[in-house]
Amino acid sequence: MRSAIRIGSTSMNHITARMLAGTVGTLMSFVQRDTRVRHAWMFLSSSAARVPAVARARATPSRSPLAPTPPRYLLTVELTGKVAIVTGAATGIGKAIAAELHAGGAAVVLLDVASARDACEEIGADGGAPVFAREADVTSPEQLDDAVAFATSELGTIDILVNNAALFTTVRHGPFEEIPVEEWRAVLDVNVMGPALCARAVLRAMRANGGGRIVNISSGTVFRGIPNMLHYVSSKGAVVALTRSLASELGKDGILVNAIAPGFTLSEGVLARPEAFKRSIESATVGRSLKRDEVPADLAGAVRFLVGPAAAFITGQTLVVDGGAAFH
């Protein structure tokens, strides 16, 4: 970017140039004398030096029209060289998280029980680190072991695991005594056993690295006591407990385990069933401090923070990301 004023150009005469030079000299003398001013000058100078790098940063992956454009105070690639696995990444929240980690420089493996090929192609379209898609059921130890073996063979290691896969949009709503036992077991199997099995599958690679990051996706319903979906709320409460216990157990290995608890989010699964979620969609903003809908992009930045260098001393915590509905 060219300077608006070019010292020494024909548009400035010799006298004006000398005056400007004298003013700059006086300013620099003052900067050197005052410690606080000198520190501020050093900060501003270093910030200005970073502008070209910011301008060259890769473009943010395309987002849903409903997604806000988050402020990019630091357009860095702090995850460069890291390898992440994101479960339930074919659509919705998982896809948004995978895209955000890739934007941060990480190589990403998208795991889903359905094909994540389209999401993989979309996320990798702008270049950058490798992106892979693998089909795997998070309740199957064998399939998870195969997926981890693939990731380590292609990318060398695993640094980050995001346990996003869960049953939500298809679960039954109603009085708890009417929820079939079979559905209870299915929800607990995916939503609780799934994260535990995924963590176990990546453990060897993370220990070999000397550490890693695990982020589990819980739910704001845990802190608000939402009725008529007891099996789902119970499963997400278990994720909070799992996060705390696993953080205590794996801290000695340098593995940090945290969770985020989203509010009601307009994911692709929700938007695909507007009638089923009509009441939730209409009432979601009523109890929020921030009066707008929550979208997958709102959660992705929180995950990126928790797996990045700025969160190196945070573990066992659950961060509620719901626009100010549950103050936890």
What is the fold's blueprint, element by element?
Layout: H1 14-33, H2 35-49, H3 51-56, E1 83-87, H4 92-103, E2 107-112, H5 117-124, E3 131-135, H6 141-155, E4 160-163, H7 181-209, E5 212-217, H8 221-224, H9 230-250, E6 255-262, H10 268-271, H11 278-283, H12 296-307, E7 318-321
Helix pairs in contact: 1-2, 4-12, 6-7, 7-9
For the residues shown, what is the average pLDDT? 80
Count of DSSP helices? Answer: 12
- Indicate the proportion of strand residues: 5-15%
Strand count: 7
Number of structural domains:
2
Q: Give the oligomeric state.
A: single chain
- The first-to-last residue Cα distance is 45 Å
Radius of gyration equals: 24 Å
The major beta sheet can be summarized as: 7 strands, parallel
Query: What is the CATH topology of the largest domain?
Result: Rossmann fold
CATH superfamily of the largest domain: NAD(P)-binding Rossmann-like Domain
Query: What's the order of the H and E elements?
Result: HHHEHEHEHEHEHHEHHHE
